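Tokens for chain A. Residues wanted.
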């Protein structure tokens, strides 16, 4: 639009007012790189055609150089200046020169839930009191805020920490802030004492991230993926994985679980995972937190949370991806009275059963269901 407007105004030279407007616009628009480039190409082409026609029909015509300052020269000069300025600006944005290193302070009470779990509150106070990270947490999250509610957590060396919650609870948002993909509204996070806000490059050198989607390139082999990411970011001591076993069969899932356990117990790597599965967190995690709408509702080991909040049994039924899960839900509900559907995802249905239901009855119904619905039920677990 900028180039077209100046070209149109120049074709109407009989209007004095438009001539004045054109003189102003041709100088004002030089601050826009796309105008300098587009108008420069237009003037270059126009000058070239004018020279060709004039040399043929006007005797003694002296061709004009398109690089004269008032033709294309000023466009080239402005493009050079703008290229340098925007390059410096991009470097400053990359290294977050304009972002202050916000050191979090105690939050006002109205931003923290009045009925905050005692273990969540104790972890918050531990983080607040340990300004210099004397406890040696390799990952520290301090009052993180962006659709989250001032969450605080510290992950120690060799610990597997789990974020458990349904879709939309804030798990992926937390990971995106830790990797610098999105900015924080308030708070800070530290990886090996490197600030995510001010030292993102150093954070990337100490952090590995396995996203839930779009992590693989179809043109690379498994070995090439490992080599590429290792060369790109270095060998990681901390890893965060967003639902790492999504879409895996039981054998592949067990293999990955063994790999994660080896990393934490033998190699002393720190791993943070998100999951919908309590079974997965129970197998892998030293501690876990349950997130609801961006807030930590409870924190502790699996055994601690079960003892404190556990009521009844949990059933997870894995089904064929192409089946209608309503058939499974209706079958279970017709045969078990005190049962509710807690979650339903692709290939997974999570039931909660009352403690009053005998275990023998529970397993009897599930075994019959697997036999009668063998075309749609792959397996199930009871915890």
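Reply:
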């Amino acid at each position: 639009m900028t180039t077209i407007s100046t070209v149109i105004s120049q074709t109407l030279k009989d209007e004095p007012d438009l001539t004045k407007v054109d003189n102003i616009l041709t100088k004002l628009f030089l601050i826009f790189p796309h105008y300098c480039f587009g108008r420069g190409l237009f003037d270059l082409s126009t000058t070239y055609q004018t020279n060709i026609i004039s040399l043929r029909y006007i005797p003694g015509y002296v061709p004009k150089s398109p690089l004269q300052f008032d033709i294309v020269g000023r466009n080239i000069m402005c493009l050079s200046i703008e290229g340098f300025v925007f390059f410096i600006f991009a470097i400053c944005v990359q290294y977050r020169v304009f972002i202050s290193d916000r050191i979090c302070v105690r939050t006002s009470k109205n931003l923290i839930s009045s009925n905050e779990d005692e273990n969540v509150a104790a972890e918050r106070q531990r983080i607040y009191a340990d300004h210099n990270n004397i406890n040696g947490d390799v990952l520290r999250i301090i009052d993180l805020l962006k659709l989250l509610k001032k969450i605080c957590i510290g992950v120690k060396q060799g610990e597997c920490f789990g974020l458990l919650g349904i879709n939309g609870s804030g798990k992926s948002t937390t990971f995106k802030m830790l990797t610098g993909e999105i900015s924080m509204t308030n708070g800070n996070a530290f990886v090996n004492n490197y600030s995510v806000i001010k030292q993102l490059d150093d954070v990337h050198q100490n952090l590995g991230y396995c996203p839930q989607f779009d992590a693989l390139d179809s043109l690379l082999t498994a070995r090439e993926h490992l080599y590429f990411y290792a060369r790109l970011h270095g060998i990681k001591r901390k890893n965060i994985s967003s639902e790492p076993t999504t879409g895996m069969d039981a054998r592949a899932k067990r293999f990955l679980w063994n790999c994660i356990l080896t990393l934490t117990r033998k190699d002393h790597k720190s791993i943070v995972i998100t999951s919908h599965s309590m079974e997965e967190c129970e197998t892998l995690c030293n501690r876990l937190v349950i997130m609801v709408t961006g807030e930590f509702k409870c924190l502790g080991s699996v055994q601690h949370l079960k003892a404190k909040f556990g009521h009844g049994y949990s059933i997870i039924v894995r089904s064929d991806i192409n089946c209608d899960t309503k058939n499974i839900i209706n079958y279970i509900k017709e045969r078990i009275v005190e049962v509710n559907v807690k979650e339903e995802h692709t290939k997974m249905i999570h039931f909660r059963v009352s403690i009053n239901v005998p275990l023998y009855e529970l397993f009897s119904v599930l075994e019959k269901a697997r036999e009668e619905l063998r075309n749609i039920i792959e397996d199930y677990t009871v915890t």
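Residues 147 and 173 are 8 Å apart (CA to CA). Residues 69-94 form the longest helix (26 residues).
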